[in-house]
Amino acid sequence: MIALLPAAGLSRRMGTQKLLLPFGAGTVLEAVIGNLRAAGLTPILCVLSEATLQGLRPLGEDVTVLINPAPERGYASSLAIALDALGRAEPAALREGPFCLMLGDLPTAQAHDMARLRLAFERRPAGYTALAPYREGRFGHPIFMEGLWRARLRSASGDRGGRGILEAHGGEVLTVEGEDGFFEDLDTPEDYRRACRPQT
Questions:
Q1: Element holding 101 (H helix, E strand)
Q2: pLDDT of residue 200
């Protein structure tokens, strides 16, 4: 299943580009991509700023890097670039079928947990067109969607991204509590320190 990874944010609250911070054997972004890959969520359409791309090693043949020339416009601008690329994906089954939407700053979302989430999406009851982790009024990632969500997500704006769109079509979204890693995005230095602590 193809994955969209809009990840061109400016990391203002972190004070440095969080996707390039060390995590595991590589960077935060490399950890996320590795977990998507291990969960079978490829190919990956990854939207980055030019500055972030310059700080990365090659990401692999299954990753198409797209540049957001104006990342200050917010998350929705990166999402739009990813959706444009999805519309050109080959074969047709990739661009017309279901897809996964992931964030670039969730390195603790483990591959086996994402694979279980995908399986739950594939086995979802009739009437649901999306599946999302949800906890205490907040959507986590990855989110799995049928192809019809491509057009819906086009109306996303600013940094709120698709949250309002998910809420507007809430009756079609199967929500599951999900693992902590689906919600532990890295926005601040403390978030990063917490994510790097050894798991007990």
A1: strand 99-101
A2: 44
Bridge partners, residue 45, by sequence: 4, 64
Strand 130-135 relative to strand 138-139: parallel, antiparallel, unpaired? antiparallel
Closest CA to 31 of 16, 45, 21: 21
CATH number, domain of 83, equals 3.90.550.10
**Number of alpha helices (DSSP H) and beta strands (DSSP E) in the chain:** 8, 10
pLDDT greater at residue 74 or residue 99? 99
Rounded CA-CA distance 179/115 in Å is 12
d(CA 74, CA 54): 20
User: Is 50 exceeded by the pLDDT of residue 142?
Assistant: yes
Beta-strand pair 130-135/143-145:
antiparallel
Provide the number of structural domains found in the chain. Answer: 1
User: Whole domain around residue 142: which residue ranges?
Assistant: 2-196
Distance CA 156, CA 161 (A): 5
Find the Cα–Cα–Cα–Cα dihedral 121, 126, 128, 130, rounded to 10°: 20
Q: Report the C-alpha gap between 36 and 165 in whole angstroms.
A: 24
How much helix, strand and coil, in percent to the nearest 5, is found in the chain? 40, 20, 40
